[in-house]
Amino acid sequence: MNVKRYFAPTAREALRALKEALGPDAIVLSNRAVEGGVEILALPGEAVGALQAANRAAVVARTGGDARPAPAPVPEAPAAATRTADEADFRVSLSALAASAARNASRSAPQPVAEPAPVVRAFNPPRIETADYALRNRDGVLRAAVAAQASAPRPPASGPAVFSGRAAARPEADEFGSARVRELQETNARLMSELTGIRGMIERQLAGFAWGETRRQAPARAAMLGELLEAGFSAAIARKLVEAVLEDADRIEAREAVGAALDRLMRACASDEDLLDRGGVYALVGPTGVGKTTTTAKLAARCVVRHGAGRLALITTDGYRIGAQEQLRIYGRILGVPVFSVRDAADLRQTLAGLRNKHMVLIDTMGMSQRDRMVAEQAAMLSGAGDVRRLLLLNATARGDTLDDVVRAYAGDDLAGCIFTKVDEAASLAPALDVAVRHELDIRYLTNGQRVPEDLHLPNRAYLLHRALREHGSASPWHLQGDEAGMLLAAGGA
């Protein structure tokens, strides 16, 4: 073999000299770094034919003429990316034919190649991860990523890069697997949505069948259930109340049975003994605009009539609303009752300590939305000031779900009951009564106007039942017709 040696300070210069001497078809056999530069061994392109002929002659001589044709050369996998023009001098092009000839010439005899045994692997289905998997397992995913990066083999500092078809195809396989997993996730989500819709449709159909059966077997019960729903009662309380109606009852008997059942569930206080006569410290709380300051003045006037002005004190914590403190001070001057203003929990504790000889202390608090985080801070301030009980004011004109939200926000062991305000403005007291029954609240007072103290009343059971169970006229747009009550129950999943 006519092997040429080229030496230069850099690989670029050595390759340029090689190409000038042997042409672009030259075959590079080796390159290495030596002292003073780079050494490259190469063959001319026409030497490949001579190597192939010598290889065939050697094989025939060893096998006695029974030579088999050489296997077809296997083309190498295409390069992963095209190189730039500046890197053309570094590209090494070894054909499969020359590589095969060199290997056959270096071996003394052909070695049989054993067929690899087939490997049977267990089927592992792809893992389906929900959309919130990465959020729920964020720490685990980060730890796994760091561990994978630390254990990954680092590429060598120098040496020719080796590309293989398997390595090039791996990103495509990973991308295909990820696409398959995403497709399965989308399919599962679509199936769950369809199943949920089918379930809701079946539940509504069953509720409709149950409503039709109820109308046939107990028409008075079904009619009374519709009246309770249109009055403003929740489905849970309406179903509980109509359980008292017999199947063969008529319309009048059904109304009486429902009224008696509601009267048993209602916790209405019939006298002032538990509040005014017992005394103590009471804070009136509730959302904005519910009437806390006016109700505080009404309770103060009622207490002055029973126990005198010297046995009562008023405190205001409302430093936000303009004129709130001045309004309460005007009521205090009219009643002859001292009024104190506090700013924080420490000031409230100090003021209450100076008023411990009073029979009753009423605290007017600042109004805020039931969704405001300051509701919890206000409750903590009142509970930290000592034995302070809260009275929750509920606007009778509000919807049932709004009142339910208010009660949940102000709930606590120190809640001594509730006061219905703006009763004169409400079309029905059913939503307020429903919330009081479900949360087992004591109804202390009702307010139905701005007059002090005339418009503060003890709850009258007959009046509450009448206002809650009053029917809508047939011309009212809120009156339920025919099967609309059943449709309403079915739509709500009741």
Strand content: 5-15%
Number of helices: 18
Topology as H/E string?
A: EHEEHHHHHHHHHEHEHEHEHEHEHEEHH
Q: Structural class, from helix and strand content?
A: alpha/beta
Strand order of the largest sheet: 6-5-7-4-8-9-10-11
Mean pLDDT: 75
Shape type: elongated
Q: Identify low-pLDDT runs.
A: 69-99, 157-169
Helix content: 40-55%
Task: Using the CA coordinates, give the radius of gyration.
Answer: 46 Å
N- and C-termini, Cα separation: 95 Å
Strand elements, count: 11
Biggest sheet statistics: 8 strands, mixed
Care to describe what's here?
The structure is a single chain. The protein has 494 residues and is an alpha/beta fold. The chain is elongated, with a radius of gyration of 46 Å. Strands 6-5-7-4-8-9-10-11 form an eight-stranded mixed beta sheet, sandwiched between helices. Strands 1-3-2 form a three-stranded antiparallel beta sheet, with helices on one face. Helices cover 48% and strands 12% of the residues. The longest helix has 53 residues, at 165-217. The protein is built from 18 helices and eleven strands.
